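Recall that a protein's primary structure is simply its ordered list of amino acids. Everything else, from secondary elements to tertiary packing, is in principle encoded there. The following example makes that idea concrete.
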Amino acid sequence: MIGPEFVRTMAAYNQWQNENLYGAADTLSDADRRADRGAFFGSIHATLNHLLWGDGRWMSRFASTPPPNQPNIPTSVDECEDWEELKARRIDMDQKIVAWSAGLSDNDLAGTLTWYSGAAGRDETKKLAMLVAHFLNHQTHHRGQVHTLLSHAGLAPPQLDLIYYLREQQ
C-alpha cells in the first residue's frame, strides 16, 4: 500500500503539474478556456473548477479545511467564476495539500475515514490509504483531460509525466 513518502511526492508532483497546466491555460483567452471542447465537464475552465472542488472536498475530510463553495459534483464546475480567483485558489489548495501530506504517518494511512458521501447519499467508511490513492488518481485523471483540452485549443501542452517532475528534482 502507499506510504507517507509516496503521498508527499505525489502532493509535490500535483503542485508542479498544476503550475504547468495553469501556466499553459493562462496563455489562452477567457473564451478559449471556457469553450466547450467535448470533455466530461466541457471546458478547460470547468474541468479545472471541478478538480479544485474535488481537492477541496477531500481536504475538508482529510484535514478539516473549509469545504468548497459548491454543494455537489454537478455544480462543481461553478466553484470559481473568475479565472484569477481560480488560479489563486489553486495555489492555496496545492500548498494545503503539500502541508497536509508532510504530517502524514504510516499509522494515519493504516486507519479509516468515515464521511457522508453526497454522491452515494450515505455515510461511508474506507481505509484512508485507499481514499488518498483515489484523491491522487482523481487529480491525475482530470489533469489528463485538461492536457488534451489544451491541445484541442491549439497549444503544445506541457509534459506532465512523473518522470519529468522527478528529473527536475535532481
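The mean pLDDT is 96. The chain is about 60% helix and 5% strand.
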